[in-house]
């Protein structure tokens, strides 16, 4: 196997579920039903959004150390995009602002950790993004994601799989190949913001109390509710094989709040910096996320949280489609399975 492109060295390991944390487990149980504080929206609901009434829920799980401990949170009400931001919506933003995404910019040597710079060939510093590329045969183990990911020069939101690919017939699909700053730039332009991790997880649970999946406790039912990997990962087989990538928004049923694709399709950027132990110190009311990023595995790389899983998630490798699932993602990382949605705060009287 050829060496991974140097531009991907700082990001690839940050994008994908760790094998050690990809075994199913169940959230803790609490008999207390959700209690809502502001069921009525304080004003007109913006187009394409739904009102999420404030309330409390249990956040986190016993699935892995960085999802624990299970703890109670409470959030104020807010509006949230009913779907992930689509290619059509992002195209409007770019047309209005001439914004250039990170994957479209030529990387600079100083963008890389100092200890890697000597090993980088300047000729390899070309714009691009990470693209899923399944191997020809099933790997013996799933502990080396370099077997199915590659850095693809020329891949960006307009060309998610690289030159020759197009979004022309996918304008109602989630926009992908965006880094965190790209998602944040769109949110600011739209007069919105990225949700906190607590808001995102609260909204994903739909106000129905703790459960392992949005739809209940049976993983097998995900085919009815989410765009996830079907077949043997990462080499799909059979007519139902899931090499199709993203699906149009609203293709699967919404949750109880009216939100689509809070499980699967694409991972979603949220506002929070990543720290593995934040759940242990999180305040109960409107947790804002930590003030800084820290991952003990790679302390020199700035990371934020992504939520929700993607079309690549599968119980044999990654169950990121659980509401409690969270993953660390480098802030300068762009891949063809990551997008976002926005929220709007309710104005305080």
Automatic annotation (TrEMBL):
<dbReference type="GO" id="GO:0120147">
    <property type="term" value="F:formylglycine-generating oxidase activity"/>
</dbReference>
<dbReference type="Pfam" id="PF03781">
    <property type="entry name" value="FGE-sulfatase"/>
</dbReference>
<protein>
    <submittedName>
        <fullName>Formylglycine-generating enzyme family protein</fullName>
    </submittedName>
</protein>
<dbReference type="InterPro" id="IPR042095">
    <property type="entry name" value="SUMF_sf"/>
</dbReference>
<feature type="domain" description="Sulfatase-modifying factor enzyme-like">
    <location>
        <begin position="47"/>
        <end position="343"/>
    </location>
</feature>
<dbReference type="InterPro" id="IPR051043">
    <property type="entry name" value="Sulfatase_Mod_Factor_Kinase"/>
</dbReference>
<dbReference type="InterPro" id="IPR005532">
    <property type="entry name" value="SUMF_dom"/>
</dbReference>
<dbReference type="InterPro" id="IPR016187">
    <property type="entry name" value="CTDL_fold"/>
</dbReference>
């Amino acid at each position: 196997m050829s060496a991974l492109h140097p531009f991907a060295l700082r990001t690839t390991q940050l994008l994908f579920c760790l094998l050690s944390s990809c075994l199913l487990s169940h959230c803790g149980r609490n008999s207390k039903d959700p209690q809502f504080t502001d069921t009525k929206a304080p004003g007109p609901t913006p187009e394409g959004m739904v009102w999420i009434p404030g309330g409390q829920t249990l956040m986190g799980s016993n699935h892995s150390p960085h999802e624990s401990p299970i703890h109670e949170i409470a959030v104020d009400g807010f509006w949230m995009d009913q779907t992930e931001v689509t290619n059509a919506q992002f195209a409007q933003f770019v047309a209005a602002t001439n914004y250039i995404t990170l994957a479209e910019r030529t990387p600079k040597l100083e963008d890389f950790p100092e200890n890697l710079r000597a090993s980088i060939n300047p000729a390899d510093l070309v714009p691009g993004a990470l693209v899923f590329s399944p191997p020809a045969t099933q790997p013996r183990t799933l502990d080396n994601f370099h077997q199915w990911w590659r850095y693809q020069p020329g891949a960006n939101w307009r060309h998610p799989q690289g030159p020759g690919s197009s979004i022309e017939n996918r304008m109602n699909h989630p926009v992908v190949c965006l880094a965190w700053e790209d998602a944040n730039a769109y949110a600011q332009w739209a007069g919105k913001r990225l949700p906190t991790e607590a808001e995102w997880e609260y909204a994903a649970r739909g106000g129905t109390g703790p459960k392992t999946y949005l739809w209940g406790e049976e993983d097998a039912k995900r085919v009815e509710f989410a765009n996830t990997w079907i077949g043997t990962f990462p080499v799909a087989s059979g007519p139902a094989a899931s090499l199709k990538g993203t699906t149009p928004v609203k293709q699967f049923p919404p949750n109880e709040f009216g939100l689509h694709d809070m499980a699967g399709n694409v991972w979603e950027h949220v506002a929070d910096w990543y720290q593995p132990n934040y759940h242990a110190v999180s305040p109960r009311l409107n947790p804002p996320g930590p003030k800084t990023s820290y991952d003990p595995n790679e302390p020199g790389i700035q990371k934020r949280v992504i939520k929700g899983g993607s079309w690549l998630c599968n119980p044999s490798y990654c169950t990121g489609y659980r509401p409690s699932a969270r993953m660390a993602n480098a802030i300068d990382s762009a891949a063809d399975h990551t997008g976002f949605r926005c929220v709007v705060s309710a104005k305080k009287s």
